[in-house]
Specification:
The chain is built from 4 helices and 6 strands, in the order αβαββαβαββ. The chain is of the alpha/beta class and 136 residues long. It folds into 2 domains: 45 residues, no CATH class; 86 residues, Rossmann fold. It has a 4-stranded mixed beta sheet with strand order 3-4-6-5. A two-stranded parallel ribbon has the order 1-2. The model has no long low-confidence stretch (mean pLDDT 91).
Length: 136
Amino acid sequence: MAASLAGAESVLMSDNDPLAVEVATMNVERNSYILQGTNVEHRILDWSVPELWPRDYDIVIAADVLYEPSFADDIASLLSLVLKKGGHLLLADPFIRPHREYFLDSLRSQGKWKYIRKTHVSRESQNIVFVTAVLG
C-alpha cells in the first residue's frame, strides 16, 4: 500500500506462504480506497524458483526475508533478475541476523550492483538494518 501511495501504477505482493498472500489480499480489499488507480497483483512465489518471477521491476521492497542463512544467495540472485537496470532494492531486516553480511557479500560478488549501502537504525528496543542498492 505504501508503494501505491508513493505513486506506483502496479504492485506485486508475493510470499511463499499461501496464508501470508491471503492476508495481504484481504488487507488490499479492505483498504481498496487507498489503492485507487493501482493494479495490485498477489502471487505465491518462492525465491528459489526464479523462472516463475516476473522481470523488469523499477523497485523491490522486501522485509524480514533473510531469516534463514541459506536464503541469502537465492535472494541475491533473484534480485538481479527481477530488477531492471537502474532498479532499486529497499530491504529491511531485524538487526539480530548475522547472515545478512553473507547476503551483502553475495550482492557484491555478482558485480552487477552500482550502489549497495547498509544503514542501522535503533529506536528504543527496535534494531533494524536497511539495505539499499541500485542495479548497475
